[in-house]
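P.,

For your records, the input lines for the assembly:
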Amino acid sequence: MRLFLSYIIGLIFGLGIVISGMANPAKVLNFFDVAGTWDPSLAFVMGGALIVTFIGYRIVFRRQEPLLGQTFFLPAPKAIDARLIGGSAVFGIGWGIAGFCPGGALPAIGTGDSRVLMFVGALVAGIFAARFLSRILETRGQPVTA
Amino acid sequence: MTDFTPFQSLFGGSLIGLASVLLMLSMGRIMGATGILAGFLSPASLQDWGWRAAILAGMATGPLAFLIATGSMPAIDVPVSTPMLLVGGFIVGIGVTFGGGCTSGHGVCGNARLSTRSITATITFMIATAITVYIIRHLIGA
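Structure tokens returned:
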């Protein structure tokens, strides 16, 4: 039941990503290219996703627990630190270079496009590199959570 | 040039939102691509790996469902070189790990919870992406 439901939720997400244009780097990069070939479509993706999630979450959080679990896994409130801002800035630089973000690329794997697979391979390598880097920072006495 | 597709994008975005709400309702989890992938790569348990693998499999079925519904595969136009894809992908992996999320986790789910961390992260990566695209397209001219 959990697996089937997870699959269906993934499918809805993946369908939403490809319909919206988030899986298409040309469209994503044009959204950010206000000074050039601007395509404002992605504002509508974020708008649609945010409206539905904002309202839906408020209904869901009236419950004490999720339907198939004991607890909501929500990130503990933490301070806004250099790690958050630095990491997000680095993510933005990579997104601007490649045109794919993780949520856009993962569903696009299903097209079998070799360029998607190359991006995802590099993404996974970057995740492991960051964990390695985290451990080095940790041994220097800085708190690490990722 | 790409076509301005407000209605299609709004509809697709609503589906992304629906998936986010359903995952929170059913399993109490944030629908963040970074978090789901990170946990898939190093799961806490077999059960923890299972739902993540199922979601990723569902995501990857998205293009096939699109093909069945419309008769054509979704367009994937990559206007950047292979080295840029690889370097960009690697940098994205580092950034989302340190930043604790990406466009789906911070940008949709976190912002919908009005998390100040997510709002800060989203503003930061949107500005960084726009500056990067400006530099690459208009200053370097790649």
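Two observations worth noting. The longest helix of chain A spans residues 114-139. Chain A has a mean pLDDT of 93.

Regards
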